[in-house]
Amino acid sequence: MLMQLPSKKKLALRWLVCLFCGLLISLLFFPAFAQISFGSTATPISNPMNRPVWDLNRPWRCGRLYCSRVVFPVRILSQNNRLTLAAQALNNISPQQAAQNIELRAQSVQLTVKSVKNRLVSFWRETQLSGKTSTYSIQQIYDPRFWWFLHQKPIHPLTPAVQIGTQNKATVIYLPDNPKYRLFKQTVITVTAPDAQHAGIEIPQLAQEWQERIRINFSDQLWGLEFSSSFPGLRVFLSLSLLLTGTLGLLLLKTIRASLLSINCRLLHKQESLAESFKDDVMAAYSGNLMPLSSKDGYVKEIDSLEHSMDSSVVDNVNESAKQHPNQSIDNLPRSAAYTHSLLNQTQNFLELVLLASNFLRIAFSVLVLLSATAIFPSMRIYAFIALQQSIAIPLIWLGIFIFRLLVVIIIDFNINNWIRRVSSRDVSSMRYTLRASTYSKVLKGGATVVTIFLGIFLTLTTIGVDRSIFTSAGVIAVGVGFLSRNVLEDILNGFLILASDRFAIGDVVTIGTFSGFVENMNLFNTQLRGSDGQLTTLPNSQIRTVENLTKDWSRVNFEIKVSARENLRHVLDVVRLVANTMRDDKQWSGYFLDAPEILGIDQVQSSGCLIRVWIKTQPLAQWSLGREFRLQIKEAFDREGITLGAPIQNVLFSRQK
């Protein structure tokens, strides 16, 4: 059952990751989702600059101008694959209207270029069907070096003419009439003064640059058709080869990650075993065995089992320390236990860092392979470019989030370990603080994880351009959910206050209302008590009001005994004092006395006897065993001295009736 629990948690985590990734894919590749309005006042066109990142013509503010891009889908990694258009906001229009105007202009240019390319594709296919071949050298076309992506190809012979002219006193780039391609004269783009101002050059120079980029775009489209015709099926073969290579690489990374996960699971199991051994020691003291076997043998075995997963020199030091004190009892273990707990946490943090690096390496490798396989096809290259933009930003965000969480976890472990060492150095009974460390660590790490995940989701949604009104709606939903689950929130708040005020923790023996027992487990939601009969009681933290902690910092034996009223009470007090001092001087029990026994004297004088009260201040959890031993020795001493215990006396009067 213990081995199945991590699998269930892992399965649930995978479902959550898959759901979140599906949401991201929907937002990335289906822009229609961006039109969904989650707020009453949000409109899709209220501000064009808030367009999602997959909108290639999305405008942005560039100084005092508004800019937009026209992107050509072939050379996605080159600066020559785009034209940056600019416009100036006039006094009579709003900034939103200026941004929308430049966006519409970019979209118009994009549609014009696309229509010309479609006409070129149709003409090229007609040329192939008619049996006409390209005028370019067949030998060069079939040379692999010619198609190398770093090789600068010449302008394709079928590329239409692109010219610069003047229309309405404005510089334009246009396509002249070409009956061969069935192309009519049409203006592709008008070069304006804001365009030249943003580029930092004169209008004629910018027109020449844009003319060359448009010609290269048409030429690249035709060369892509030539490649597909000369090497049919090669794109599919290259894509499948990349996918196969990526699959083999992912299998190798998965094998390495599985080994690291196995080591991490063993460390978690050792941490759980160590925590269980601590609980067994405390329960043994609770039940009366102040020198449990786990303190002497089990702990040494636990140290030996760590040699396979931790640094041998460090383990040897701990093991040697354990062997020098073979008769360690529960009050002498805290330093070694805290040191071992610290080593396990440090090793686990290092493994989490390695697992995090391997996980992101696997994700980056998968994205790189998929994008490379997709970019081989010209029609899918623009979508690969869009995914590449997102695959760089979003993983970097989550990498930063997880690194931030890991740093927070390291700081939490560092401070908790220092706290354990500090209390262990001044309090020999601080095994209970070692037990508390696991509770504090779980709560603080869980809180850090929740905060970082919500921060990552917020940054991710902001990066992909989700309308901020969604966050307002999400806040309203959160308030409603909080109102419906106010009992859970009350449990969490009271649980946090219990931990912060240090009322009790794992390892304490407490009385809460009508329930009492050993605190076996606790978190922000509930507390579990193990009673003397073995029953496990679970209490919601919101119902915990008054707590009686019997083992916080120190404990006390409240010893009461009645002796016969006929005894010499001063002699009885001397016998009790002698027994208490003798027991305090005994090496077996002296370590559990914090102060000298207080013989309070005679508390009651009655016909049934005189009540003697003794207080003994002890280590936490030692009051029961020490009290049992003290009562035994008092009885034996009274028997030797002939002291009679008190007994109830009842007078019975008889009367003779006439």
Structure description:
- One of its GO terms (molecular function) is mechanosensitive monoatomic ion channel activity.
- This is Putative mechanosensitive ion channel, MscS family.
- It is a multi-pass membrane protein.
- InterPro entries: LSM_dom_sf (IPR010920), MS_channel_C (IPR049278), MscS_beta-dom_sf (IPR023408), MscS_channel_2nd (IPR006685), MscS_channel_C_sf (IPR011066), YbiO_bact (IPR045276).
- This protein has about 650 residues and is α+β, with helices and mostly antiparallel strands.
- It has five domains: about 1-35; about 50-230, no CATH class; about 245-465, no CATH class; about 470-550, Roll (SH3 type barrels), CATH 2.30.30.60; about 555-640, Alpha-Beta Plaits (2-Layer Sandwich).
- It has 15 helices and 14 strands.
- It has helices at about 5-30, 95-130, 140, 195-200, 205-230, 235-285, 295-305, 310-325, 335-375, 380-425, 430-465, 470-485, 485-500, 570-585, 625-640, and strands at about 60, 65-70, 80-90, 165, 170-175, 185-190, 510, 515-520, 525-530, 535-540, 545-550, 555-565, 600-605, 610-620.
- A five-stranded antiparallel β-sheet has the order 10-9-8-7-11, covered by helices on one side.
- A hairpin with a 5-residue loop joins strand 9 (about 525-530) and strand 10.
- It is elongated.
- The termini are far apart.
- Residues about 1-10, about 25-45 and about 290-335 have low confidence and may be disordered.
